[in-house]
Write a structure and sequence with these properties.
By secondary structure, the chain is α+β, with helices and mostly antiparallel strands. Among the domains are: about 10-60, no CATH class; about 95-130, no CATH class. The protein has helices at about 10-20, 25-35, 50-60, 95-100, 125-130, and strands spanning about 35-40, 45, 110, 115-120. The strands form two sheets. The protein has a two-stranded antiparallel ribbon with strand order 1-2. A two-stranded antiparallel sheet has the order 3-4. The protein is elongated, with a radius of gyration of 24 Å. About 5% of the residues are buried.
Length: about 140
């Protein structure tokens, strides 16, 4: 069997057009023919369906995220759920702070309710008029 030459993964209109031309093939074969596969050290071809399907979604112009990732890398997505850690802290991850374009040093006012915690970002005008808060042990 002749090895096919590895192509750069197709994107956008080129991807959509090629997928339509390959309508009789399985989705794995479509992904492979559109360049969404890798070759292992042993020469085994592995189809990357997730990248293929994400490229199709992007090509169709469907936006699943409320804001595109600033760093362009994969990783965990925000689930909007957190758990209290063993040391009693609640950690708000970088997925949330990036989505809000927060910077180191940005301040928040914490308001406690019966079953909720509210964070409200302090704007620059408020910062000027605030007295420093004392830390309690």
């Amino acid at each position: 069997m002749a090895k096919q030459k590895k192509i750069d993964p197709l994107v956008g209109e080129d991807l959509l057009k090629h997928v339509k031309e390959l309508e009789s093939l399985s989705k794995e074969e479509k992904a492979k023919k559109c360049g969404y596969y890798t070759v292992t050290k042993n020469g085994i071809e592995r189809v990357n369906m997730m990248k293929f399907l994400n490229a199709l979604i992007d090509a169709e112009g469907i936006q699943l995220d409320s804001a595109p990732s600033a760093n362009g890398r994969g990783g965990r997505s925000a689930s909007y759920r957190i758990s209290v850690q063993s040391n009693g802290n609640l950690l708000i991850g970088s997925a949330y702070t990036k989505q809000m374009n927060l910077l180191p040093g940005d301040e928040f006012i914490i308001t406690l309710g019966k079953k909720h915690i509210r964070l409200r970002q302090v704007d620059s005008e408020e910062k000027d008029g605030m007295e420093p808060m004392e830390a309690t042990a």
